[in-house]
Amino acid sequence: MASKPTLFFTWPSTLLPLFLFLFPLLIESRPIPQAPHQAFQFIKKLEGSQKGQTIIGLHHLKQYLEKFGYLPHHSNTETKRIYDDDSFDDLLESAIKSYQHNFHLNITGKIDAATAEQMMIPRCGVPDIVNGKSGKGRHLGSTQLHQVSHYAFFQNEPKWPPSKTQLTYGFYPGNLVFDIQTLRSICANAFSKWQAVTHFTFQEIEDVNNADLKIGFFSGDHGDGVPFDGRGGTLGHSFEPTVGWTHFDSDERWAMNPPSPEFFDIESVAVHEFGHLLGLAHSSDPNAIMFPSLRGGQRKGSQKCETIKGLHQLKQYLEKFGYLPHQHSNTYTQTKGIEDDDSFDDLLESAIKLYQQNFNLNITGKIDAATAEQMMIPRCGVPDVVNGKSVMGPYLLGSTHLHPISNDSFFPDASTWSPDLNNYLTYGFSSRLKTSLDYEKIESIFASAFAR
Ligand SMILES: [Zn+2]
Ligand SMILES: [Zn+2]
Predict the structure, then answer these.
(1) Of 120, 191, 219, 434, which residue has the fewest beta carbons closer than 10 angstroms?
(2) What is the largest CA-CA distance in the chain?
(3) C-alpha–C-alpha distance, residues 429 and 97, integer Å
(4) pTM more than 0.85
(5) What is the CA 46 to chain-centroid distance, rounded?
(6) Which residues are the active-site residues?
(7) How is residue 280 annotated by DSSP?
(8) What stretches of 172-307 adopt beta strand conformation (E)?
(9) What gap in Å lies between CA 393 and CA 412, rounded to an integer?
(10) CA of 332 to the centre of ligand 1 (A)
(11) CB-based contacts of 449: which residues, under 8 Å, 6+ apart?
(12) CA distance 251 to 264
């Protein structure tokens, strides 16, 4: 869990094994949970509140916003003290505004009906904002980056070591809502979805203490500093690499294929939580599996293993830069076509391999972390591949200097200037040029670029 792990990382490393050993014991001795309640229901009473008011219960909202990263994080006792008053101040208003921004609500700074409704939906316990930066919003503001905004990483990008591609997982005994066979099949299924689109493989082992990923059902205060909250509210939480814990709140009414809105779909939450185990942060796309909220009865990530919502945007990205055949005069105005479906097919795999080859990445054919990271970097809009042939020479990469022309590459079948031009090319500026630079400045920039 992104804002809390300092708790673990700052401990002397010699204490950590001891803590891990004690952890199951702490769980055994936890207090008996209170009667289940709807943890976020208190927000209903705050609907309509705004800056300047003092309303009983507002301090609960401050603690909620602190928990999910919208107000500065303090230790548990400090939080109680600092966020203990019921006044609607400037800080609360700006926290609500950034919550509204992340959830695509009208930015009113008030607890209006839509905001209260969104806040009451049960959700993952992992904060949306870490160290003041939103994992969710990090990729907004650029159309290039937006293409792969379904995949965002935690701010400091905690990762498994590159050599660690085979991850083992195990289950804590006890507190199981499902029998172990059912739980095994749910988790195997959830991991298979990530295996299809990353370079990781997952294997269950018997001994949970030796597993990379440790999965269990817990209730209330369960010893990791982040207590669960009874029925509703927080459904589960996970700790980023390389802690590797996923905890589900055992006070929830879990189900496979939930029969009614009182039940939560365990597999949807499992796929989401396992995304955190791989280092993924929350997405602000309500359709993405990494969106933090899940309504009762709702199922997500239930498509075929190889289908992930948003893959069609990846296909559009790869088409734009030449890795997939050009389908339409304007992809974005067409609604039917190869790029509009979310299936991870052979064509997409080979396009990704070609991309990986061009960018000197491991050729996995999957959207592994390094590939996603490379794709999110802003770039030139000229395609890398024309008519199926790569136009990226190896020397174009990794250098800020231009190389002698023999090392650069030409477009295939190409496109050269007529020989009788005598190597003499003229240039000029379009009168429609819109820029903040003045004309003389532009002239000098381009003259210097042509000189190189
Ligand atoms: Zn989450
Ligand atoms: Zn926990």
Answers:
(1) 434
(2) 89
(3) 43
(4) no
(5) 30
(6) 273
(7) B
(8) 201-204, 213-218, 234-238, 245-249, 254-255, 264-265
(9) 12
(10) 31
(11) none
(12) 11
Res 409 pLDDT > 60? no
Cα 450 → chain centroid: 41
What single string gives the DSSP state of each residue in 64-94? HHHHTTSS----HHHHHHHT---B--HHHHH
Q: Looking at this protein, which amino acid is placed at residue 200? A: F
Rounded Cα distance between 148 and 139, Å, is 8
Of the pLDDT bands very low, low, confident and very high (cuts 50, 70, 90), residue 375 is confident
Give the number of whichever ligand sits closest to the CA of residue 288.
Answer: 1
User: Structure tokens of 93?
Assistant: 């208003």
Interatomic CA distance for residues 237 and 235, integer angstroms: 7
Contact 225, 246 (CB under 8 A): no
| Distance between Cα 20 and ligand 2 center (Å) | 13
| Least confident residue range of 83-97, 240-254, 273-287, 339-353 | 339-353
Residue with tokens 């903040």: 436
123 Cα–ligand 2 center, Å? 14
Instruction: Express each pLDDT in 55-78 by its tens digit.
Output: 999 999 999 999 999 998 887 777
